[in-house]
What we know:
Elements lengths: L1 H16 L5 H14 L3 H13 L5 H13 L3 H14 L5 H10 L3 H9 L14
Helix pairs in contact: 1-3, 2-3, 3-5, 4-5, 5-7
Amino acid sequence: MFEKQLEILNKISDNLNRKEYDKKNTLKMLKYLIEGSSYEKIRIISIELLRKLNIKKDLIFNILENCLLSDESPRVRALSAKYLLLDYQNKCEKIIKWALKHEKSPTVLKTIKDYSYGLDGHKLEFLT
């Protein structure tokens, strides 16, 4: 199963690099792998590819939010927090505050701290 999922991700990555992909179907497949794979590595690669799609949609926000709230892997939760803070600064306040209050993983908390500064270098207002 792992090899098949990795093969799918490699194909998606190749298509993204060649700019030969259908955003809707690619998004659908990545969502399926993020939500359905039992392999941490598959979920991490899927989230990274999701960001490479370079689209800001509510669906992507919801996928990242879900991962931060409920993924068993601190690495997946940390990556989700990172991309929420980088790509959805105006929308992620509630979920990041929730994570700061409830998260136990030092990895996730450090990621939030490290990415708590906006693109302009100033600390995000809701984290001050």
